[in-house]
Amino acid sequence: MDLEILKRKLQKIKKLGFTKTHRLGDTGIGKTLEDLLGIKENNIPLPDIGEIAELKSYRKDAKSMMTLFTLEPLPSGGDRDRILLDGFGYSKRDNQRSKELHSTLSCKRYNAQNLRLLVEKNKIRVKGKNRRLNIYWDMGSVEKKFNAKLPALIYVLADSKIINGSEYFHFNEAYLLENFNFGLFKKQVKNDGILVDFRMYYRPNGSVRNHGTGFRIKMNKLDDCFSKRTKLI
């Protein structure tokens, strides 16, 4: 598929108007778009730009953030997760978990679990309030992960509505983003345009279940990580 074919497909999809979701729940928008485009994976080879472009779709009225990629901080291993769970985790009465940590970290302030981020020259650090931590991402690994996962990005926006209990999507806006700029990425982390989510808990047997640490972005800040934007529809 080249850009012209992709644009023609997206224009046809736009003309369809509202299309009933192909899957229930939050992931329905991505599944529906993939089916309409005739692809099985959430990326598209684009020889025009010599890259594979990651495909993302988003409800225009949604307030949730887009996950760019998942990347665990250093040092690696279960001890790091246990330090976070033991020091900053919490317990709920309605499940079997002794400790869990579902926590969103930003740079500008400590969150409810007393955690925040700090951007240094070569690292993004996890800071604990009144507690010293040596948990961090090195900038080289973050840049490598972003370039591997998102050398280029196509994001498609849709209006959504409920008809007779089912969700329908109208995919009517799409952009191609190229030339990832790591300096702009770091700036977005500093300015809370990009946040980090920890998602882990102790199983009943005492082992740690980590669902992956996500770097997430506010949709209106997505363009600011790339130097080039092309409108497709």
Short description:
It is built from 5 helices and 14 strands.
Strands, helices and their partners?
Layout: H1 3-15, E1 19-20, H2 28-37, E2 43-46, E3 51-59, E4 66-70, H3 78-88, E5 100-105, E6 115-119, E7 123-128, E8 136-138, H4 139-149, E9 152-163, E10 166-180, H5 182-190, E11 194-202, E12 208-210, E13 214-217, E14 226-231
Parallel strand pairs: 3-9
Antiparallel strand pairs: 1-10, 2-3, 4-13, 5-11, 6-7, 7-8, 9-10, 10-14, 11-12, 11-13
Structure, explained:
By secondary structure, the chain is α+β, with helices and mostly antiparallel strands. The chain has one domain: MvaI/BcnI restriction endonuclease, recognition domain (Alpha-Beta Plaits, 2-Layer Sandwich). The protein has helices at 3-15, 28-37, 78-88, 139-149, 182-190, and strands at residues 19-20, 43-46, 51-59, 66-70, 100-105, 115-119, 123-128, 136-138, 152-163, 166-180, 194-202, 208-210, 214-217, 226-231. The strands form 3 sheets. Strands 1, 2, 3, 9, 10 and 14 form a 6-stranded mixed β-sheet that branches. The mean pLDDT is 90. Pfam families: MvaI_BcnI.
**What is the arithmetic mean of pLDDT?**
90
User: Stretches where pLDDT falls below 50 for ≥5 residues?
Assistant: none
Q: What count of domains describes the coordinates?
A: 1
Q: Write the element-wise H/E pattern from the N-terminal end onward.
A: HEHEEEHEEEEHEEHEEEE
Just give the CATH class: Alpha Beta
Helix percentage: 10-25%
Number of DSSP-assigned strands: 14
What is Rg? 20 Å
Net shape? globular
Task: Give the N-terminus to C-terminus distance in angstroms.
Answer: 16 Å
Structural class: alpha+beta
CATH superfamily: MvaI/BcnI restriction endonuclease, recognition domain
| CATH fold name | Alpha-Beta Plaits
Described by strand count, sense and barrel closure, the largest sheet is:
6 strands, mixed
Q: Give the second-level CATH assignment, the architecture.
A: 2-Layer Sandwich
Share in β-strands = 35-45%
Number of helices, counting only DSSP H or I runs of 4 residues or more: 5
